[in-house]
């Protein structure tokens, strides 16, 4: 038993020492660390990291060893093929200029996206958005739909004489809401056809309209309830407001840079716009 205990302890010590040595070896690794080379051209860890970050999400979910080795193979093959190119086409240099410009600008944009937005700025943006906004009203109504004005007038008289509206709707309405007592649920302005909406707006809660004609037929409408719809809270809009604030800061920077920069733009008619499709200009 003593021998077994010493053996386990030795194994544990070896594992700890090996792990420590492995971690210590990684301490010197940087983005410039060379992981492969092809005819003297280095492939670095940084290049692998950048390439992995640009992979579609489904490939980033693969095990790291699969991705690592796959990317090394890809870059080695690209280097082998690229080395066979004797003359570099003009379009490569042009593409590199565009890519560098885009990436440099992207770094600046990322600083705005990653910058935290303070609660005071969020509150100010929220207050500004809703300062002059009146709360919307939504309505809950029921209706009885029939084909003719005569039927609608008769049903209106029945309801006025005390007939239960929901029961009458189940019995008389030809609309899809009839079996549920004519209940239309909650709706806001613009969700109903104009004539129907106009009638609803004239009613108090519990009041029943005169017959109303729409393209669907004749309606008897009862307003069940009206209420103001609450504005979204600051927490509901926090992410959206933060994006707006960041975009405004970025726009302000662009405007400031534009005002102080020496910019020359093409004059109207100076270029034939169809030239932008002329790929032959990219050939040597």
Automatic annotation (TrEMBL):
Occurrences of domain PpiC (ranges): 136-225
Pfam families attached to this UniProt entry: Rotamase
Superkingdom, taxonomy of origin: Bacteria
Enzyme Commission number(s) from the entry: 5.2.1.8
Signal peptide as annotated in the record: 1-23
Entry annotated with the keyword Transcription: no
GO molecular function, one term: peptidyl-prolyl cis-trans isomerase activity
InterPro entries, A to Z: PPIase_dom_sf, PPIase_PpiC, PrsA_foldase, Trigger_fact/SurA_dom_sf
Keyword annotations: Isomerase, Rotamase, Signal
PANTHER family: PEPTIDYL-PROLYL CIS-TRANS ISOMERASE HP_0175-RELATED (PTHR47245:SF2), PEPTIDYLPROLYL ISOMERASE (PTHR47245)
Protein family per UniProt: Belongs to the PpiC/parvulin rotamase family.
Name of the protein: Parvulin-like PPIase
Organism: Octadecabacter antarcticus 307
């Amino acid at each position: 038993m003593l021998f077994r205990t010493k053996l386990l302890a030795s194994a544990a010590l070896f594992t700890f020492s090996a792990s420590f040595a492995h971690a210590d070896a990684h301490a010197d690794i940087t983005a410039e660390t060379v992981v492969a080379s092809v005819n003297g051209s280095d492939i670095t860890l940084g290049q692998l990291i950048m390439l992995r970050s640009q992979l579609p999400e489904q490939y980033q979910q693969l095990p790291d060893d699969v991705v690592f080795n796959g990317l090394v193979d890809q870059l080695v093959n690209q280097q082998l093929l690229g080395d066979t190119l004797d003359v570099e086409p003009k379009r490569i240099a042009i593409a590199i200029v565009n890519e560098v410009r885009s990436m440099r600008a992207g770094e600046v944009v990322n600083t705005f996206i990653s910058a935290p937005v303070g609660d005071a700025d969020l509150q100010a943006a929220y207050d500004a958005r809703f300062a002059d906004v009146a709360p919307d009203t939504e309505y809950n109504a029921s209706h009885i739909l029939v084909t003719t004005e005569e039927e609608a007038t008769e049903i209106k008289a029945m309801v006025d004489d005390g007939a239960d509206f929901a029961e009458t709707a189940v019995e008389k309405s030809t609309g899809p809401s009839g079996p549920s007592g004519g209940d239309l649920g909650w709706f806001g302005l613009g969700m109903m056809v104009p004539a129907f909406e106009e009638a609803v707006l004239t009613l108090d809660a519990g009041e029943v309209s005169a017959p109303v004609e729409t393209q669907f037929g004749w309606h008897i409408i009862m307003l069940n309830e009206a209420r103001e719809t609450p504005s979204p809270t600051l927490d509901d809009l926090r992410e959206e407001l933060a994006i707006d604030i960041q975009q405004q800061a970025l726009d302000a920077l662009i405007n400031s840079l534009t005002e102080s920069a020496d910019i020359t733009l093409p004059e109207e008619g100076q270029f034939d716009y169809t030239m932008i499709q002329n790929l032959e200009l990219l050939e040597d």
